[in-house]
Amino acid sequence: MASRLREKLAEDQLLHVMAAHSPLSAKLVEEAGFDGVWASGFELAALYGLPDLSFVSMTQHLDMVRAMSGSTHLPIVADIDTGYGNAINVTHVIAEYERAGAAAVVIEDKTFPKVSSLATTGRQQELLRIEEFQGKIAAALASRRDPNFVVIARTEALIAGLGEAEAVKRAAAYESAGADMILIHSKQKTPDEVESFVRAWSGAAPIVIVPTAYPEMNEMRISAFGKIRMVIYGNHAIRATVAAMKDVFARIRRDGGILTVDKDIVSVEEIFRLQGMDRVKITEKRFLR
Ligand code: SPV
Ligand code: MG
């Protein structure tokens, strides 16, 4: 799977990566024609009804990635937050995610426990010392078994309010530590901050963005910057899920039954299809005597 991601990256196209929080949603990402699945920490935390504050453990996230890799052929880009510890922990984490079937990881330069990047808790986002994070990147590179496994270094300098110069400095330091790609994150409501960073970026490492906060940065606008090679739609699976459930639940309560919503939701047969019931029928014929 890592080699497929590398091949796609070599094609010089923008890769479209959609968030998922379950094997089922990963399958839907594939059917919709995306290039990869974002195993989002935010989505999984939300699925458990928890804030994205390092409450969800590595094991929980890893189990989900492992299950996803059984349900999709797409490369999985795993969100490993801060790497669940220091550089030594990262050596273990990378081995585990590679074994679980991930093609790439995104590791961010915040301290543990992390605070959700888009949150407005008033808490200061703390970043690691540059040298320490370089050590985590080096540990990740040294621990991957497949050299095609992609290590994406994410700087939260803009999220922490430290400005573009600090973001560029960190990105350059992470590239020199060997990061394959740089993820620049921003929670500004317009693309200006990210676009300015991309213009200032003179490194060779391609850029990844997550335009949740600045949705007007569509793919046409992103593609104008050749340096941005991956766009991650960070939380649209869980948000779509919540919107759909709220609507259907409210209508069932209002109507006192399920008759009117029935035509607006997928059929049981469609769920059977997604579950692979067709294969069950074949194996029944073959083996049940
Ligand atoms: C996630 O989806 O978990 C991310 C992206 O890391 S964000 O929530 O915007 O930080
Ligand atoms: Mg995350």
UniProtKB/TrEMBL annotation:
InterPro entries: ICL/PEPM, PPH, Pyrv/PenolPyrv_kinase-like_dom, Pyrv_kinase-like_dom_sf. Coiled coil: none annotated. CDD domains: ICL_PEPM. It comes from the Bacteria. It holds the Pfam family PEP_mutase. Belongs to the isocitrate lyase/PEP mutase superfamily. PEP mutase family. This is Phosphoenolpyruvate phosphomutase. It comes from Bradyrhizobium iriomotense.
